[in-house]
Design a protein that fits this description.
Number of strands: 12
Helix content: 40-55%
Low-confidence stretches: none
Strand content: 15-25%
Strand order of the largest sheet: 5-4-1-2-3-7-6
Bound molecules: 5'-O-[(R)-(carboxyoxy)(hydroxy)phosphoryl]adenosine, zinc ion
Mean pLDDT: 91
Length: 405
């Protein structure tokens, strides 16, 4: 089946056309069209994602991105005048909402014939509510105009499914190698979650952050060090250099005596907290006053070490308590090579039977491919009544939990 997938939960607008086939334990996904736009540069001045700006950007870009994705998938066709009128009529009830978006939509629906897709998958939550609403309203409008059912997707399930995929060739991904139970560690700018999955659709959230997400802490510390936004990769690069120099033992003697906390590392529960670590960096930066490059490097190195120590401690604790066959890492911070390396060492030394899997290239940060994948698995396991057609109650849910079923 073909799925049109929409992701607008944070600062990436993603629209994908996905061809999905097979049962859930050996599903295959081929990306037919994929248009992704990152707003990161627009949020740089705020040092974080600014929800109303995200909303405006999603609304401005959703239609052109969809057109691009449909064209790439060769599903873009001009409509007839009669069809265009029907589309507009169906949309009538929704036109008062999201004015900018729907003006663009009406224009586009006058030009695009109903594409031959079987379902629309859209992120319902969790995420920034104003941003999520754009995707939800967009999906409703397309569903009404084109009479296509909607599958509401949990963004976190999307990350887990994407991370469990292996790439076969080019743009084809498969779930064939996943054995349950799966333990997922999701780390991004918006979430820090440890999730245990018994099967697709059967999840337990074991632990989550009580304050800042991992990526958020990276971004805030980067800002304190005067590094550009988003700061994760910049911190990671500095820390890499710090470790290299320390290893060669030819760094200058420490300009500062750095010893950062590892919040909640030794608590019995599986929750996380990163705001204390961030605040510790803030006090340190204030104490030092003017930061030279060497001090920045040392702070970044110790910060990353503290983050990794906490993540490893919690993963190790979980593995000792629960059966796990596959470990998957997901979210934007999963791109971090040092975190990957330390997790690989931990698992291969202490839990050699566990398969470890990192997201395929391009699927660690937010994207619509993963939303289409999770949507397909829902489509496979649920009855047709679970899909949304003209449902006025269909709403974004900023704090959506991972539900079973
Ligand atoms: O998943 P994502 O694209 O969006 C959110 O849902 O937040 O993740 C973006 C986050 C940002 O905080 C960014 O700084 C962080 O991922 N990030 C990294 C690295 N690359 C991106 N953090 C640490 N190391 C990296 N190499
Ligand atoms: Zn995400």
């Amino acid at each position: 089946m073909k799925i049109l997938a929409i992701e607008t939960s944070c600062d990436e607008t993603g629209i994908t056309v996905l061809e999905a086939e097979g049962t859930s334990d050996e599903a295959r996904f081929t990306v037919l069209g994929n248009a992704l736009y990152s707003q990161a540069a627009k949020h740089a001045d705020f040092g974080g994602v600014y929800p109303n700006l995200a909303k405006r950007e999603h609304a401005a870009n959703a239609v052109p991105l969809m057109v691009q994705a449909l064209k790439d998938a060769q599903l873009y066709q001009k409509t007839t005048q009669k069809q265009a009128l029907k589309h507009k009529e169906a949309l009538g009830t929704l036109l008062h909402r999201e004015q900018g978006l729907f003006e663009a939509l009406v224009d586009c629906l006058e030009n695009i014939a109903r594409p031959s897709v079987d379902a629309i998958a859209v992120t319902k939550g969790p995420g920034l509510e104003p941003a999520l609403w754009v995707g939800v309203n967009f999906a409703r409008a397309l569903s009404l105009a084109w009479d296509i059912p909607i599958i509401a997707v949990n963004h976190l399930e999307g990350h887990i499914v994407a991370s469990a995929c292996t790439t076969e060739e080019g743009e084809t991904y498969t779930l064939r190698d996943t054995t349950f139970p799966v333990l997922g560690l999701l780390i991004s700018g918006g979430h820090t979650e440890l999730i245990h999955a018994e099967a697709w659709g059967s999840y337990t959230v074991l632990g989550e952050t009580r304050d800042d997400a991992v990526g958020e802490a990276y971004d805030k510390v980067a800002r304190m060090l005067g590094l550009p936004y988003p700061g994760g990769l910049h911190i990671a690069n500095l820390a890499h250099e710090g470790r290299r120099l320390a290893h060669q033992k030819y760094g200058k003697p420490l300009a500062v005596d750095i010893d950062l906390p590892r919040p909640m590392k030794n608590t019995d529960n599986l929750d996380f907290s990163f705001s204390g670590l961030k605040t510790a960096v803030l006090y340190l930066v204030r104490k030092i006053g003017t930061l030279d490059d060497h001090a920045k490097m040392r702070i970044a190195t110790e910060f990353e070490e503290a983050v990794v120590d906490v993540l490893l401690a919690k993963v190790g604790k979980t593995m000792n308590r629960l059966p796990v066959s596959t470990f998957v890492l997901g979210g934007g911070v999963a791109a971090n090579t040092y975190i990957r390396k330390r997790l690989t060492v931990l698992l291969s030394e202490s839990f050699p039977d566990v398969r470890i899997q990192f997201p395929p290239k391009g699927l660690s940060t937010d994207n619509a491919v993963m939303i289409g994948m999770a949507g397909y698995l829902q489509y496979e396991r649920l009855t047709k009544e679970a899909f949304i057609r003209d449902d006025a109650e269909f709403a974004a849910e900023g704090r959506m939990k991972l539900r079973n079923g």
